[in-house]
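My current task is to audit a protein record that another person submitted. I have pasted the whole thing underneath without changing anything:
***
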Amino acid sequence: MNHPLAASPPGERLALSRGLANFLVELAIALQHHGVYPPGHPFLARSAEGVVRRLDTVLLDRASLSFGVARRQLVIEGVATDESNPVLSGLADRLHRHRVGAVTLRRGLDVDEVSAFLCFLARETEPGRPPREWGNEGWPHASLHSLSYAQLELTGDGAADDGHATAGVRAAQLWVGLARAALASGTETDETPEPAVVAKAIEQNAHAVAYDQVIVGYLLQLAQELRTEGGRGSAEVRRRMSDMLGRLNPATIKRLLEMGGDGAQRRRFLLDASHGFASDAVVRLVEIAAESEGQTISNSLVRLLNKLATHAGEPAGATRAAADSALREQVEALVGGWGLADPNPQAYTRVLDGLSTSLAGIIDLLPGPNSPEPERILETALEVGGNGPTIWAAVQRMEAAGQLHRVVHLLADAPRPGELVDAGWAYACRPDGVRRLLREGADASAALDAVLARTGADAVPPLLDELADSESRTVRRAAVDRLVALGPAALPEIGRRMADDRWYLIRNLLSIVAGIGAAPDGFSVAPFLRHEDERVRREAFKAALRLGGDRERVLGMALTDPDTQVLRLALADCADACPAPVLPLVCRRIDDPATEPEVRALAARVLGGSREPIAVATLVRVASAGRTLLGRVRLAHPTPEVLAAIAALGRGWPQHPVAKPVLDAARRSGHPEMLRLLTTSPATA
């Protein structure tokens, strides 16, 4: 039997399992009913019960089910529904109009929650209406994740309804689905996940069979979609896929390929990838797939493919187009059969491998078509102890080409000390050298660390300059990490730059202070706790709590701050030990209906760790909604904050005369979540 997520034959799409297909059809029909019948109609209850019954079957072996939303399709574990199916395409279109990017349904979803969930989705959307109420409806076991077109900047315009825009969105949707599956998270984010983050997550979750199956499904689907798609959006997805595959270990790629089906299915995937993925990714997949098939690719052919991939990655031009076309033709011819052992001696093979990845002739140090490469010139000079204008011209050309980190590596590996080595380190360690290494990105990370080990505090000004002026988030992140690593040596210059009026720079400087755990002499974080920009205040409160000092005052200011993230930060700090003077502010937050339910739930957990009378009184007030005619406690609707309050009472005051009636009412309610919380509570277990 074929793998359920294996590549399908040409012209066919991957098929959903029967259970998932039946559930989606049931959900689509129930949503149609909730849009047609009036509230309270008995047919709506039967529809909701059908959805719960199908969902329970699907969730027998998993805790939750998530599926992505394209304009005419739903995507589950890399498998896309058929656009020609009117029921499922109608469900996808309605979710798309709500600007829903993904849906997560968790175990415990009951009929009432399903009804509320479907009633919300059955509303007709207004043009441009933002998803302002998501997460505040009466369905805690269901989540909608926004996927705005601003988030999918890799799709281009995204506003058109024509085929090209839809195709671009489909490829981008599959990439976001792959990223979310790799991160194993349903958390909504405003930023498209970067390939480095996705690759790291896949490596960290190695050898989890179910996890690998999901990743394989998305890879197969992306290969099929990108084979025929064009435009700027698809080009960006190809770039991200190439970057991600380039960061994965060969063993990980081999494991994923072997899970993708038998040899014929792997060859089909390689054919799709050869037309859809970037050229360097295609070469890497072919080499690893050959090993997985137990076949041998001629080393001469590997060198040819690498050379073609190198030229295909050059700026646009006739050479690039010809190399790209030739590479993909060679791969198509190759996947039909493997063979031809390497006839060359190993030493000769290593020499040819080195030559195949060079870019001879691009840097014109000397006239003529066969100009020597600057790296080769510097390497030779370090070996023989040479020096002179030609060598320094080579160094400057490498720096201009973004290869200063290669200069540093060659200096570190120099076979002997000498005048050129000392002068080379002095050249790399100058302030402009630090700036250039930062801009060269991840490839220069080790070289930058080697330079900073020599420069110490002298590198702080150029690092701060790049932090202030660079438009690259990667560069700014690298500068922050290095400044934190430099520790107290960076603090004097940081203190001098705190007077800057750019909010983003102040935020990053406060983040560095918090990371170091010390402040510049004479510096006070207090003025920034009331900064007009909430992003600055967040870092200011982190720094203030890390530095110590008047903790009660800092927490008091944080608990009265209008920013939700600042509130979360303060409540998290209070979770282990909340000062008694701060408790009234925590109680005020949990009593405030304008506060988000999740924040009120955090406040309830904080009160659960206190033994002050005000804490138990507040928790009882939150959990109860008056009394019945018989005098029994009536529980409040089981919102997140109510459930958190009941759990806190069960842990801290199981026999308290004020709390016990509420806990007894929770046990009598039969509510599964309340019973679970009381059963697992340490004080009542």
Notes: The mean pLDDT is 77. The chain has 33 helices and seven strands. The beta strands are 64-69, 74-76, 79-80, 100-106, 142-146, 624-627, 633-635.
